[in-house]
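EI: anyone free to look at a 419-residue chain?
SC: sure, send it
EI:
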Amino acid sequence: MRRKKKKGETAVCPQIHPRVTIPRYMLIRKINLQEVYVARRGETNYASSCYSARTSPKLESMIPASYNVRDLTIRPATVLAPMAGVTDTLFRRVIRGLGGCGLLMTEFTSSEGITRSAKKTLRYLYFQEDEHPITAQLFGASPEVMGEAARMVEDLGYDAVDINLGCPAKKVVKCGGSGLLRDMPLLEQIFRGVRAAVKIPLTIKLRAGWDENSIVAVDVAKLAESVGVEAIAVHPRTRMQGYAGQADWNIIAAVKQAVRIPVIGNGDINTPEDAERMVQQTGCDAVMIGRAAATNPWIFPQMQQYAATGRYDTPSDIDRHQLLSGYYREINAANQPDAVGKMKQFACWFSHGVGNGGELRRNVHAARTPSEVLESVERFFEHRAGVLGVDPGSVGVARNEDPAHGPSRPLGVEATVRT
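SC: here you go
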């Protein structure tokens, strides 16, 4: 597995990974140095309108226009958080297609599985060339194994490697994740081992600490910077909190004041307004979105639109239908063994923004095969379009939403809004 990628070759050996059919985007022109892409018609159902990412003075005051991890520039300064069972290549490309996300990250991946060339583990590292910039996130507790896994990730063509110090799951804590926050000497060995193993940028994502009596985020950040870690993402909850309670953004601010490398804020960002408040309150260099991106994949372009105009579009039923249907078709085409489970999981999150979403969830959960899931989605939206008096094949209309004063003049957009 450890070999250099040849020119013109895909990022990972195709025989190791499931076949995927993914839409391609063409660069059609540049406007004010910003690239404008359009999906080739007939290749996708979930993102066929143009999106222009323009930078305004307000954008820089809300969310930094970009940040650098050594020579790697992330623009805009927004990151899709690694999420187990969610951020595979299909979901990452949905987010990339909608626009507004500067950096993608893989699901956290076992360093032991990588070094043993376990087929299931290697599948997590599959990515396509248009996902750049992209970071591979690893977890483990052996400095030697973590270093070897990081070298293999570098050979696959990733732009950076990240060490997971945040996962609270019991099976991960036993061999890495947030469990390492209790062992600073071992943590230093892992940092040094991985840093010595790769030339690409090295970053970490950590929690505040193990529990409220051991808040170590600042200490870990200082240690990481001293041995060559080049950016830090902070989720300011403890391992014992899991995802309960409120994220303490003061911890992000404390880390930012303690180090000179970029600090990425994560936790309790559910809307563009939340992202704005985090940057203002913590001074962080970028924001990372996790669970909110699973329930609202449009949050990244919404942040850009809100930064530029003070308002943002919300997707219509047709937009949601086309994204959900398109995403499910890609899952089905990839022949993944967990396809039905992934579809049901996503329906649970995504349908909370859909009118009468409970019915959609019930229909999806009653399905037993990917094709049955697709049929239930199509029936639901066709029925809903009939109730609302909307042509199911028509162009979607997004609401131009002013957070303070509600919707204003509707904006006509094609298929999925890429605001």
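EI: The longest strand covers residues 202-209.
SC: 👍
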